[in-house]
């Protein structure tokens, strides 16, 4: 093979990879939008049309709707982890609220498939890593004196869970209602001298709640 042919072949492969990556990104964005508007009942044909790709391209990448949802859920948790990691670099005491705020926006943008986000599709290692990062953010906030010392990592997890509930329930009627709800949560978290008389949820209970295992 001539040198020129090899160079052209490499350039062609790179172009194809870029095109494939671009199609994937467009499909996932369209799916999130379609599910947000119509719920999980949105069809694959609707998603292909919104993504500007042919049905064959969509089905070649994602053979079923379940495969598409599974990818959205995986990306959803990957981004939550990245948001928590970025929050750890904030000045002492700011990271926890920064994470909860950005997580709220992320949940709101993912409203259409949130019912599947904490099912069996959620990889256990992602959930555990996110919990470890969140525990670190809570510890930093407590050491900085901006969070009640009685709070536990399960309290933070349930705060995120409650945001999900507000986002899902309020829907398009009050799409920003979760922000007010988070304001109330953070006011409670900052109440350093307030006694919390009830026991926190245990990690075991949290696992059963978030996985729906009863």
Automatic annotation (TrEMBL):
Start-end of DNA-binding region: 43-62
InterPro entries attached to this UniProt entry: DNA-bd_HTH_TetR-type_CS (IPR023772), Homeodomain-like_sf (IPR009057), HTH-type_TetR-like_transc_reg (IPR050109), HTH_TetR (IPR001647), Tet_transcr_reg_TetR-rel_C_sf (IPR036271), TetR_SbtR-like_C (IPR049445)
Keywords: DNA-binding, Transcription, Transcription regulation
UniProt keyword annotation of rRNA-binding present: no
Domain (HTH tetR-type) ranges: 21-80
SUPFAM superfamilies (alphabetical): Homeodomain-like, Tetracyclin repressor-like, C-terminal domain
The protein, known as: TetR/AcrR family transcriptional regulator
Origin organism lineage: Bacteria, Bacillati, Actinomycetota, Actinomycetes, Pseudonocardiales
């Amino acid at each position: 093979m001539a040198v020129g042919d090899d160079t052209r072949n490499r350039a062609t492969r790179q172009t194809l990879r870029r095109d494939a990556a671009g199609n994937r990104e467009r499909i996932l964005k369209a799916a999130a939008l379609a599910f947000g508007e119509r719920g999980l009942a949105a069809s694959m044909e609707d998603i292909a049309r919104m993504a500007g790709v042919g049905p064959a391209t969509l089905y070649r990448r994602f053979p079923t709707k379940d495969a598409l949802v599974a990818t959205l859920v995986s990306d959803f948790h990957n981004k939550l982890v990245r948001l928590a990691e970025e929050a750890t670099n904030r000045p002492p005491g700011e990271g926890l609220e920064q994470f909860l705020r950005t997580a709220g926006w992320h949940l709101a943008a993912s409203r259409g498939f949130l019912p599947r986000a904490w099912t069996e599709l959620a990889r256990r290692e992602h959930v555990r890593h996110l919990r470890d990062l969140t525990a670190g953010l809570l510890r930093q906030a407590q050491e900085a004196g901006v969070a009640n010392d009685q709070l536990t990592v399960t309290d933070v997890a349930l705060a995120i869970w409650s945001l999900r509930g507000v986002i899902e329930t309020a829907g398009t009627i009050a799409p920003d209602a979760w922000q007010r709800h988070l304001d109330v949560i953070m006011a409670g978290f900052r109440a350093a001298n307030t006694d919390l008389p009830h026991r926190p949820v245990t990690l075991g209970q949290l696992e059963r709640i978030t996985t729906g295992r009863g």
